[in-house]
Amino acid sequence: MATSRATEVLGVRLDDGRIVVIKSRRDLTGRAKTCVTVQRYAADAGFPCARPLTDVTYIDGLAVHAEQWRPGGDMLRGDSPVIAERSARLYAQLGVIVEALRLTPPLPNPEWVNWEHDGSGIWPPNERHDDRPRATQLPPPLVVIASRARARLAKPGQVPRVLGHADWEAQNLRWNADGPHAVHDWDSIAWLPEASLVGAASGSFASAEIPTLAPMQSSEAFITAYEDARGRAFTAEERELAWAASLWPALHNARGEFIWHSRAVALAEVLAQGEERLRRAGA
Predict the structure, then answer these.
(1) pTM for the predicted model, two decimal places
(2) pLDDT means per 10 residues in the chain (283 residues)?
(3) What φ, ψ does residue 25 adopt, rounded to 5°?
(4) Under a CB-based contact definition with an 8 Å cutoff, are residues 283 and 244 in contact?
């Protein structure tokens, strides 16, 4: 997921032969502590991810910690309903593990799911994007879709919030012949309604090197498979939130594509699918 948050990763070989990973990133709000705690809790529960080896230490505004090195595995490429269901079942496993966690919310949420920002525009402030000339020349249909999606997401009703992985893309997951091998990018933990997290994942699960928006039927398959794996169907309100959230990561990427003259991958899908996803979102 394109973002202004950069994480530096350094591999270190210890005297005992182990290779560990040192991660550092700018963190002025303390959200890294919660993200690393969620990662450690998931690893201890047997979820496929690198286990943090230290707590977070702050050095000159940088959050630094060490974790296991977990190489290997392959991306599960494709955007078919079958792949959507497989990805969703793994996401549901994580949901079961973290649902009882009560931690300091890791706010602000990652930019690509931060529709609750307090900036003056539709999208959250972005120091890389906002001063570019084309930032004020976005295609009107894109702006309309984003405005309607955000308006629906801003009305979550009485739906409780949970912690969850908010960058559930193929590029952050690794698989082997036996099943899931590793889930990466734990700095992307968010605090949102469960249905919103699932919806965002249902739209972005197929994104590999170039982020996109999954086909409608595959997002539907993802949401349904998640419900089946959790043993609970979403309410009508939750379903609407899921469909609205399914658009937001792609809207984030579509804006970036346009501003930076990149190939319109996410933008094309947002314009093609936006109206139907908004209809399902009640927007």
Answers:
(1) 0.93
(2) 62 81 92 97 97 94 93 96 98 95 95 93 91 93 97 85 97 95 97 97 96 98 98 96 98 96 96 98 92
(3) -155, 155
(4) yes
**Structure-token pair, residue 77:** 């490429």
Place of tokens 């309903």: 81
Tell the CATH superfamily of the 81-280 domain.
Aminoglycoside phosphotransferase (APH), C-terminal lobe (3.90.1200.10)
Question: Cα separation of 61 and 58, whole Å?
Answer: 6
Q: Is 229 buried (19+), middle (13-18) or exposed (0-12) by CB count in 10 A?
A: middle
Residue with tokens 């498979």: 225
Write down the residue that tokens 């793994």 correspond to: 90
- The CATH code that applies to domain 7-68 is 3.30.200.20
- 279 Cβ contact list (under 8 Å, min separation 6): none
